[in-house]
Amino acid sequence: MSILPYALETGCRPQAAGGIVSLHEAYYSKAWGFGAAFRDKVSRELSEFLSRFDPELDFQANAFAATGLVGSITLDVTGGGPDGAHLRWFIVDDQARGTGLGRKLMASAIAHCTRAAKGKAWLTTFAGLDAARALYETHGFRLKHESDVDQWSGGAREQLFLREPPVAGAAL
Asked: Residue 10: how many CA atoms within 13 Å on its side-chain side?
């Protein structure tokens, strides 16, 4: 069953929160064995972000198909801290993987990051998400640190990626 076409919407859409949590839970429980602690963490932190969303600084893009939410990405500028904007909740539904949706979501977030955070950003992820890592690196993120911290309660090795502001005139 094809989920395409989809519509890409930017801006905070609180109604998408349940879909974002559901997409994370479906993928990470199946592929990585993450359980309720992971789902609850995503739900709690997403709710906190949405309660303070600043439309002038923060960014969220959601892709909807007839079947519902099929992809999402968030850039938390207001809560990002000294390392820049925090890239969060980047997910693409299994049926939409390989369609270019992930690249489109990432490009929209990075364009916003360039405007709102001068291109500086960071994200946490874990080892083994190779396709996502390749996409992060394509957009200027570099692995800064790896540790045995497991904030997701799933036995994963945490990674911190940083994206420094691009040098004027330099290509990614």
From this structure: 15
- Whole-structure pTM over 0.85, yes or no? yes
Q: What share of the chain is helix, strand, coil (3-state, %, to 5)?
A: 35, 30, 35
Tokens of 73: 């990405």
Phi, psi of 88 (to 5 degrees): -140, 160
What is the pLDDT of the chain when averaged over all its residues? 90
List the domains of the chain with CATH numbers. Answer: 6-163 (3.40.630.30)
Q: How many residues does the chain have?
A: 172
Residue 74 amino acid letter: T
| DSSP state string for 24-44 | HHHHHHHHH---HHHHHHHHH
